[in-house]
Structures are given as C-alpha cells and as structure tokens.
Amino acid sequence: MTPSPASIPPGRVLPTLNADGSRRQIRPRSYHGRFERWRGWVAWGLIALFFGLPFVRINGHPALFFDLLTRHFHVFGRTFLATDGVLLMLVMLSLFVGIFWISALFGRAWCGWGCPQTVYMEYVFRPIERWLEGNRHDQAALDRAGGGYRRGLKLAVFALLSVLLGNVFLAYFVGVERLQQWVTQSPFDNPGAFLVMAVTSSLVFLDFAWFREQMCTVVCPYARLQAVLLDPRSLIIGYDARRGEPRGKGRERSSKGDCIDCGACVIACPTGIDIREGLQLECIACALCIDACDSVMDKVGSPRGLVRYASQLELAEPSQKRGLLRPRVVLYPALIAVFAVLLLVIGGGRTVADITLLRGIGLPFVIVDGGAQNQIRIKIHNRQPVPQNFKLELLGADGAQLIAPENPLSVGPEASESTTVFVIVPQSQLVNGERPVRFRVSDGKGFVQELPYRLLGPIGR
What we know:
The protein has 461 residues and is α+β, with helices and mostly antiparallel strands. Helix content is 42%, strand content 20%. A hairpin with a 2-residue loop joins strand 4 and strand 5 (78-81). It is elongated and about 110 Å long.
C-alpha cells in the first residue's frame, strides 16, 4: 500500500530509510587515499590473522582454541578450564575496557578499522560486488531491473565465501584436524557439526548480502554506547563548519566557504550519512569521507582537512587543544592494570592439578568387620601437557585402612580421571559418628595437596 502524503515525513528519518519508509540501498563510491590505503593494510593483516590462528600452534595447541567438548580454552599458550571462570571473566573485562579506552581516545576507531563487519564488508564483499556488478550507477540500474545474472553470480560467490568463513570460524571450536575430517565426510556422519556450520554460514551470508550497513546502524549496540564512551576531547571524524560554511559552487565560491557542496563525502559513506550534519551514531569512523573530501580539495586548489580527524572541542574552537589526560583516559588503563595484576596473581596460584573429593553414591557408610566403611570418589584433573601419576594417601586416622584399586592414579595430559576408594575406620576412632581426616595427593615431582574430609559411622551411646 502506498503511504498517504500526510504520513510521509518531510526528510529522511534514517540514512538507510527513504522518506516513504522503504529501504535506501547504500552503494558507496570508492575513493583512493591515504586512509583507505592504511585501513587496507590493517584489514588484510586482520584477515590473515583470522585465517592463520587456527593453524599456529603454541605449546601443542592452536593459538586460539575454544574446545567446548572438553571445556578447555587455549589462549596463546595458556590453557583455561571451565573451572577458571574468574580468569576468563578477567580476560573478557580487559578486552571490553580496552575497547572503551580506545573509544575515549580515538572515538569509534574499532568500528572503522578493526571490526570484522567493516573489514570483510569493505575489503572482501564490496570489492567483489563492484567487480561483478559495476560501479554504483550500474548497481542502481540492477536494483531497478530486479537483478540479473550478474547479481545471481555475485550471490553465489557470496555464498561460497560465507561457507569458507563459517568453516574457519568453526575451526576455532573444534580444531583444524577434526574440521578436516568433517569436511571430507558426509554431512550425515556429523549432523550436529554440519548444522552449526550451515547456520553460521547462513548468518554470514545474510549479513553481507542483505543486512550490510544495518548491522552497524540498527543491530550493533556499540553506536548507542558512544554517548557515554566519548567526550568532547575524543578523536572523531568531523566537518570544519567554520571553514566550510557557507557552501557554494562555481562563481559563488569567492564569497563562500571551502565546501563546494559536491556531496562526495556522502557518496563515499558506507552508512549513508552526511558528515556535515555533525557527529551521528551511524558514523563508523572509517575515514572514507576524509579521502573523498581531500581528493576534491586537491582538485579545487584548497587545503586538505575540511573533513578530518579532530575532537568536537577543536572543531568548535580551533584554539582549544584536545588534551590526552582526562579522568576516563586514566581510569580505563588503571582498570586494565588491576585486571592484569589479578590475572597474574590468580593465574600464578593455579596448581598442577585440580583435586575434588566427593562422597560415594548410596549409603554414607556401611558396617563391615572391623568398622565403618566409607566410599569416596576422587576426581583429578591434570593441568600439565604431559601424563602424570598421582599417589593417594590417608592422613590423620590411626588404624584406618585405605583401599584404592588404582594407586597411583594415571591421568593423561590435560585430562581428567576419577577413581573410587574405600576407607574402613574402626568405630573406636569415631566421635559422635565422625572422624576428620586428610587425603594427600602427590605426583612425586613436587606437587602435594592435602584435602580435609569427614569419615562417617554409627553414633555410639
């Protein structure tokens, strides 16, 4: 149904939305410049890192490997277990605070330079789109025509790339070796893994083929956080209105500002905004508008920098200095330092193995000849990358007998083993039906850990 004229707002509500409510397809023009070149180096370095990390091994494991099946997380040579939740939390907090720190200093530099959405959109998928469909005018013609064989070919290439990215992403969770086996086998042999890969690939395809800039402007919450992450001294991309206004073209330029109202900055923007309207949440700080404006300034003989990196304070008053020392810029690295110290303290205090004592299933004790028999389950997780033998001993219970079918207990590298032991304690050793004892676990190489335990028995008169 066509909306009535009264229901159509006078201007565009969102950069990706037309006045009648339909979606406005963003077809940015590529301008070559210094920032585009620098971002290209960063982007291809990040892409190489993403594809290469699953193949780089440190201490026998991939550099980044989140093994959900065994609940082991390998991060650049360090292994974290599911029980290391505090350490993982500190790592994640450090990453988040680091992004906040970067935002306070350099605005949305993460979005424009490091976010996978921007990196793959601008340096993989969009170049392929321009190669197959032509420039922005050719793409608009295909939009009006409803597509064509070139668009179908583009979507097929996008689908293949999405499958590739989905498989590489899966390698971070299952490992390259296991993924290679799955790829060479029928999907019916590993339906769960195939489903995960298919869902991941489908999401990647929908993102880069359909959602595109809407992922940054509508879905991602980071843009809405910039109101509290930025301050007037944060480095952003801005338009120098003092120099550019009033705008004028041709003969009018003698009495106008440097902006010739060519619209190059708008045409170059991957989210469709006009940077001349000030800081907007849709801006991802990719600097494409800077390259576009600089190329125009070069042609008309005006100095570069009409659109540039600057703080809001500098744009409002050029005599003001941005200044690096301010509360949030000091607070964020201080928090990161605290997290780092906690990681060193807590991580350095981790033992060779994790020992867990559990009471046996069933009755708490059984009366046998000679006393009360307790069943105890001992679980040992070996944190070392080599197999270990752990000796079990009972301390603090004179006359008690330890029956351990496996002693010492052999545990593989970074593996867990459980064993059941029995302790028969004379009733004369019980006080109110209890006897406190200690279990000692040692590996014969310096690791010794003692754990308290309460043996149970009948309560005498």
